[in-house]
Amino acid sequence: MNINTYIRRLAVLGLLAAGIAHAAGAGQADGLFVEPEWLQTNTAQPNLRVIDLRYGIEEYWQAHLPNAVHLYPDVLTLADGGAPSMLMPPTILAQILGRMGIDENTMVVAYSETADSLSPYLTWALDYLGHKRQALLTGGLDRWLAEGRPLTQDFPAVSAKAYHLPAKLNESVRATLAQVRAAVRDKNALILDVRSPAAYNGKAGSTKRRGHIPGAINRPWLKDLNPDYTWRDPAELRKEYEQLGVTPDKSIIIYCNKGYRSTHTYVTLKHLLGYPRVAVFDGSMSEWSNIDSLPIDTDSH
Questions:
Q1: Are 17 and 77 members of one domain?
Q2: Strand 77-80 to 83-87 pairing
Q3: Suppose 130 and one of 60, 166, 206, 224 were both cysteines; which one would form an S-S bond, judging by CB atoms 3.0 to 4.6 Å apart?
């Protein structure tokens, strides 16, 4: 799709703008979200970096937000100990960020679009590094288009920086296989499966074994989002999670198939609802199902 096609989309998407603006109102912002108007005004600030996390590099070539650098989401992952799609080691993440002109003091604003919607994975990765200055663009590229905001094909001028890791990583937001095994037997812990009900019940899926981690509660990640992929009202989300028994007093571990979709629910619980102990199991079902000695359930909870 070239930039002219994107512009033609505005005629259609513009009809949605009022509804999207209403759905993505101030009620869902907690400091993690920034509005398109703010980003358009501030995008040229010297210590701000906009990251385009769409899968298609061709889409980025054809049109992207001004001053946005493209980051292919899978660049943040690798096979670790044989398990695919594990988060890159911190030293490698620091190199990746530095090459994009990001240091530990840079304000990072990430966006994607509803077709992939993977920007929360970067949110989680930056939380793991202890990076404080970051945000997600409310409504992503879709809302930016709907509001008729500018696009470009120009690449930004980027000078590499040195990203200095903290003395201590924020390990509390990442769950290891050993921690998940312990959580299965811990009454104070809660494991949350954010895949589809069919995957949870073992009726669908591509991993070695189908089903879910024993004791896990199922709540698909899409339930937290409006049709335009903005987050729903926090008060409604809090009520729904508490009805499931997902409460702030618990240590919560989230998983999906390979860790990507888990980070949407991570944003909900950690950033919107302020739950203090929320971690993503990035090995997810990919790692768990491949170890034959680990149990798998197919019963509903």
A1: yes
A2: antiparallel
A3: 166
